[in-house]
Amino acid sequence: MSYRSSSSSAYTPWQDKLTDACTEYAIAAPVFQIVSDRRGGRTAWSSRVTVHGTVHSARFWYDGKNLVNAKEDAAEVALNWLTGSNPSSPSTSRNGRSSGR
Questions:
Q1: pTM to 2 decimals?
Q2: What whole-number percentage of the chain has pLDDT above 90?
Q3: Where is the segment annotated Disordered (predicted)?
Q4: Residue 14 predicted with pLDDT over 70
Q5: What CA–CA distance (Å, rounded) separates 7 from 11?
């Protein structure tokens, strides 16, 4: 499978925020994966990102020319989980460890 990677000039606010949050929490940088699904005569594309051992999937599927959007979608989901903006996220302290008992 081949695809064109995003250019360095692409606007990626969610990916940037996620990377910054990982740095702040002293955890490994996010690792993105592009996934595809053949649907009839077309292929749909999406993204997953692994953060602190947890895989987060983008909410939507995209046309191949919008891979940056797929990564942004997954980054937003992961950032909401990491920062506690989602009720199902763990309580995370600054050092990346759970603060719950």
A1: 0.75
A2: 71
A3: 81-101
A4: yes
A5: 9
What is the set of domains in the chain, with CATH numbers? 13-83 (3.30.160.20)
Least confident of 5-14, 32-41, 43-52, 84-93: 84-93
Q: What is the DSSP string of 30-44?
A: PEEEEEEEEETTEEE
Query: By CB neighbour count within 10 A (0-12 exposed, 13-18 middle, 19+ buried), where does 8 fall?
Result: exposed
CA dist., res. 21 & res. 31, Å (int): 14
Instruction: Spell out a b/e string for 13-43, using b for 16 or more CB atoms within 10 Å of the CB, else e.
Output: ebbebbbebbeebebeebebebeeeeeeeee
pLDDT tens digits, 46-58? 999 999 999 999 9
